[in-house]
Design goal:
Number of domains: 1
Number of helices: 5
Structural class: mainly alpha
Order of helices and strands: HHHHH
CATH superfamily: nmb1532 protein domain like
Distance between the termini: 32 Å
Largest sheet: none
Strand content: under 5%
CATH architecture: Up-down Bundle
Number of strands: 0
CATH topology: Four Helix Bundle (Hemerythrin (Met), subunit A)
Shape: elongated
CATH class: Mainly Alpha
Radius of gyration: 16 Å
Helix content: over 70%
Length: 149
């Protein structure tokens, strides 16, 4: 059975890949061809944040009693990144493709720092404190719905 760290690291890689595709599509300058990659990247990032905020963070907080520690920091960083994702979505809706790579670059810098903290600190703590729930949590992560855009 894979660990939560392994599953969530893979999710981070998938989000990074989607973000790169969205940035590349927007750089090409064709609004019709950029729409789906950008919207898909936004949705997949938001999905990942929801998995953490609705499933994993509450389970970790319940198991440890820590509600003001690492999960609070991660939620705060999620809020910053959600703002950038919305900025990308709005730029797309307004047809301002040149704005998307600029926002995407900022987003990627924040995500890299954020993901390092999660993968090196929080996720290993989750693996330790949620070991008896890992099978159920992984099933919930894998079954979490992909919203349509």
């Amino acid at each position: 059975m894979p660990s939560l760290t392994q599953i969530l690291h893979q999710e981070h890689q998938e989000c990074d890949h989607r973000n790169a595709i969205a940035e590349e599509a927007s750089l090409a300058g064709d609004l019709d061809n950029a729409r789906d990659p950008v919207l898909h990247a936004v949705q997949e990032n938001l999905r990942h944040f929801r998995i953490e905020e609705e499933i994993l963070f509450p389970a970790f907080e319940a198991a440890t009693g820590m509600t003001g520690g690492p999960t609070q920091v991660m939620r705060s960083e999620h809020q910053q990144m959600k703002g950038l994702l919305e900025e990308m979505r709005q730029a797309l809706l307004l047809g301002n493709l040149s704005r998307i790579p600029k926002v995407s670059e900022t987003l990627m810098l924040l995500m890299q720092q954020h993901n390092l903290k999660e993968e090196n600190i929080l996720y290993p703590m989750m693996d330790q404190h949620l070991a008896n729930q890992v099978e159920n949590l992984i099933a919930q992560v894998k079954g979490f719905p992909h919203d349509s855009y």
